[in-house]
Predict the 3D structure of the following.
Amino acid sequence: MDKKLQENMPIYVQIMNRVREAVAAGELKPGDRVAPVREMAQDFEVNPNTMQRALNELEREGLLVSERTAGRFVTEDKELISRLRSEMAVDTVDAFRREMAALGYSDEEMMEFFRKRCEVTGSGALTLERIG
Amino acid sequence: MDKKLQENMPIYVQIMNRVREAVAAGELKPGDRVAPVREMAQDFEVNPNTMQRALNELEREGLLVSERTAGRFVTEDKELISRLRSEMAVDTVDAFRREMAALGYSDEEMMEFFRKRCEVTGSGALTLERIG
DNA sequence: ATTATTGTACTAATTAAATAATACAATAAT
DNA sequence: ATTATTGTATTATTTAATTAGTACAATAAT
């Protein structure tokens, strides 16, 4: 789970998305304990209040559960997690199609553009370029 | 060019993107006159100041030019426009791959997911669903 | 020449996000 | 029992985006 945040979206929302992704991708597994609020705040270089806001909302979603002083954990509900992953993927694909369509690309052209882009840049090149 | 705006990104940035897309897609052509600031502000249901901020920045980018009292126009620089379109498409594809990769999808799986999603929803279904 | 339309500039007020600084509550560890 | 660690709550401050309101400047239209 990468920590550098972008601009133009509330930090707490960005954090929520990062955690959602980490859980959806299986980087954080059901029942896994996550770091304490204060520690996560340091990791992400944000204020503890901001981190708590993000974590609280993720709890409302059922993705995390807090057990008072034992810490905070990823839900055991694997069904919920796999549903989350699917929904996020659908949203991502739809957002992609919508944006490319807005630029005047047909579904076929998108496909072709995607394929070409995969050839040019390997699989690993993107993350570092974009986030760093 | 659709007008409804989303949350979580500064409105003026969202407006900039909408205009960029409209120009890149050829919906606004080189030399086209755009509506006056005040009118656009009403169309987008934002404050005139906010609209002007967006338009000003688009001018700094060279995409728009203002001619004092005659109004504001799309640049005649077609080279600039086609370059913009390419860059936006690349950014969009890269963002897509990055997000899907974060969810644990390989390039091949993304491709397959994309294809399936295109089958399920036609080409037109997305815009209304998402933006409305 | 006058007027209306256009872009531009400026100051103030509002709102939400983020930070800062503490304090409290519950419990696992000792 | 005590202590340290954890989540939680609260209040104030700061910062940036947005709105509000107004005024000015240039010029096309009349």
Observations:
- Residues 10-12, 46-50, 53, 68-70 of chain A lie near DNA strand C (CB under 10 Å from a C1').
- Confidence is low (pLDDT under 50) at residues 128-132 of chain A.
- The interface with chain B takes residues 8-10, 13, 21, 24-26, 85, 88-90, 92-107, 110-111, 113-115, 117-118, 121, 123, 126-127, 129-130 of chain A (CB under 8 Å).
